[in-house]
Amino acid sequence: MDEATIRTAIGRFRDDEGRPLVAAENLANVIAEDTWFTVVLGGAGNDQRLLPPLHRHLTTAFPGASVELRLGDRIYRGGGGFGPGRHVVAVLGGKGGVGKSTIAVSLALTLSALGSTVGLLDGDLSAPDIPHLLGIHPQRSRGEGWQLWRTDPPPPSRWRRPSARFGLEVMSTGFVLAEDEAPLVTSRVMVSALLRHLIFEVAWTADALVIDAPPGTGEELQVMAQELPLSGAILVTTPQDLAQMDAGRTLTLLAAHDVPVIGVVQNMAALECPHCAREIDLFARSSRLTDAGVPVLGRIPFDVRLSEAVDRGEPLVLGDPRGPIAREFARIGHAVRRWLADRDRGVAA
User: Fold this and answer.
1) What is the CATH class of 3-76?
2) What is the pLDDT of residue 143?
3) Separation of alpha carbons 48 and 75, rounded Å
4) Where are the alpha helices (DSSP H) in the chain?
């Protein structure tokens, strides 16, 4: 399997009238290494809708090969984009302070406990908290830059390796910055390059990649929704109407880019009275998101141990695996796995 053979196979990718669907002048580059190869298509004359059928054509022509296609800001590896049977799930909150990062960590650990191979990507480039939540406290690593501006995509032998923690594969900009350093992500172009690097130039083996996304609807989230192969998104909110209104803005952004929403997790939903064991609502309950058709995946009770545990880098779902919070995350994890399995069947169809 070499460049010439791959180019010949692409030349056989034709429409019903026998015309090539990828003109030779629109085939910018082919890079091959062992059983992996990437095809870079030029922007002029090529349509992103060609990526799935071209991928099927090439995987049929080269059985057992891992095929990556690149066209502009879109990278496609089959299935929903990340690879056949592989998924990228974004955990989002319309505003800060709703516990989104804690939910992302706990969900990733729960999916791992349920048998999935899971990666956790810190997509909040301006406030990378995932290392702290997992008990990883890097010192500044001078001189360890990330090469984002390449003329050609690197082959797998040059991909960055994720860190490992609690059975998860983990990657964060926080691994190359001390906790008191401010990341210098200054433009949409840099956000786009960095996020695509973290998704496609890291040697993930995970079949489910959970992204802890930043709050709001800024550059990072817009790039995620527009350029990354998101299988679905999970909204995190507290129950009251103001938080759900902010989450609704995120919902509108996702709909504009055809990103399906798996459901909403209501965090800090209620407190169990230590005297009578009755449930006490901490916030007035809003139906704004359910009225918009977003199902509730779970309601995480308020428990001060949850924040204490993550501050120690010891997630509570591991420290108290039979407690009420772990049980609720198990419900959420099963619901997410069912949703992804249904999506796989739809993609296969």
Assistant:
1) alpha beta
2) 43
3) 10
4) 3-11, 51-61, 100-113, 130-133, 188-200, 219-227, 241-256, 288-291, 304-311, 316-319, 324-348
